Amino acid sequence: MTTQTEKNPEIAVSPPKPLISGVWMRRITALAPVWTLLALGLFFSLTSQTFLRPVNLNNILSQISTLAIFATGMTFVLLTGEIDLSIGAVAALTGMICAYMYANLKVQEPFPLLAALGTGTLMGFLSGTASTRFRIPTFMATLAMSLIAGGLTTYLSKGRTISQLPEVAVFLGSGRISLDLPLFGVIEIRVLVIVAAVSLLIGHLVLRYTRFGRYVYMTGASKPAARLAGVNTNIILTAVLTISGFFAGLAGVVSTGRLGSALPDAIPSFLIDTIGAVVLGGTSLSGGRGGMVQTLIGLLIYGTLRNGLDNIPSIDPLLKDVITGIVLFVALVINVLLAGRAPRDKTA
Description:
CATH architecture: Orthogonal Bundle
Number of strands: 2
Shape: globular
Oligomer: single chain
Strand order of the largest sheet: 1-2
């Protein structure tokens, strides 16, 4: 006795449809950082009377501006599935070079600024070249470059802080521009905020509307597939690390101008804060997913969290880093779970 399925082999039992389609799951995943930002904003606005004041909101933008410059370059690197551990040390070196040339060597502007940006770009290029030509993982290549940059900073500074800075560095880090707007009157915008916004905008335009941007996403999604499609992934990896070095150099100069001096040591939190902000926005650590819009959302989440905790007096100041670290850890776990295993990984 044959069944109906055996008589008509074209009739097959279809598997049950999932409750949530892949399209909706991707939409939920993409909007998760937005809901996180809104939830944090609502929570801190209810628990703090000063959080929504214009002065405090302006402080949030100022606090994340330097981080935004770092994050612009780091987004390019993470989209390819790689990482750059040298940005903090490179920023310290470029700030020191800018101040050292102006204060000790009496080199006039704008050459200290150009030398600083060129040094950051060169160090990023060397990291990319070492990684692609000699097959050194970017983790190790940029870690070695971090040690080199840190050693050069110590050598130039002799362990001392340099307070005499070029005017252009001070202007970029601490300058203000007054704007007379019809509805809001005269408002002051920090030049640092403008530099950060321009950096993010340029990064967005490059990733969204250029062939290079498409190649960055292709390289991060699958390097073998990108090579088969004719993409020179070695050039792409070298380019993104060079871009990261340039923005690290720019961040070093504006950070020096903001602090009013060039420090002999790198600020340790720059690296983890940058990676944390980019990941919080939804850029995948495995590459191929994310962008500057996601990075901007991540920066706002990070700035809101940091600033909101400072505005709640009942929270122990010693626990603020713990809370921030927990939020970052949870975000990393969620990021990895949502990204899933890469299709090319046949061993896991």
